[in-house]
Description:
Elements: E1 14-18, H1 23-34, E2 38-43, H2 46-56, E3 60-64, H3 70-84, E4 89-92, H4 108-126, H5 130-136, E5 139-143, H6 156-176, E6 182-188, E7 190-192, H7 194-201, H8 204-211, E8 220-222, H9 223-236, E9 240-243, H10 245-268, H11 270-284
Parallel strand pairs: 1-2, 1-4, 2-3, 4-5, 5-6, 6-9, 7-8
Amino acid sequence: MTIGSRPYDVDGKVVLITGAAQGIGRELANILHTRGASVVLVDIDGEGVAAAATALGPRALPLVADVANREAMRQVITDTVDHFGCLNVVVANAGVVPRPATLRTIEGQDFDRVIDINLTGVFNTVRPALDHLVTAHGHVVVVSSCAAFAPGMAGAPYMISKAGVEQLGRALRVELAPFGATAGVAYFGIVDTAMTHTTLDGDDLGRSLDELLPWPLNRRITAAQAAQAVADGIERRAPRTIAPATGWSAYALLRGAVNVVLDTRLTRDARVHDLMRAVEARVRI
């Protein structure tokens, strides 16, 4: 039996989670702490991450850092190992969603911010941890998205970043295998978080984009359900975790063929045309 096929008990392990002040990251910290792990909660929100760690107790360490800051993330890994003596699991979860805009109208700094946090931030999180994870025969989870499967109309930087994260995670799994460590990619559909409420529910254009998704792709899950999927995936050393599985798992498997059809339909859909015009009109105001 190889390392990657053995169950992985998190009891007594040290797990670092970025984006841990709220949402999926905070829920995941709660679950893994309950299962016996010591957790390092990393977030740019100092008050939020301190409150999350305090609620968990002495096996929780809050650290404040911006994942886009490479040197800060190196220090996070150093502080983690200094405090707990080792590092077994890293979950690169931090991410942001841009305001709806087309690639013609988005500001360069807004595009860069998404890539810096969602993609480069994953590299900044994982890279300084890898030697420790190899020593511990540990596990990495990088959080991509089911958005990586779909065309990124009016939200291309997010889809681009998450597609890049998927490739980063796949490369890691192959590269770590000779050294007894593993990596997996987590994909979520629409998760009911504050970020979703801001970008979809609290915005007319966001709601219109959401309405274009057919069932079951528009099905929402809670942050706790997403975190549960990641936690269970860690204990299986799963190469991929998809939640909700209904709809998205089939899409993931068949996306090569589905996307050819979907892209053609979207380029001809009058509703999409109207929506793209509306996005550009609002951005240009």
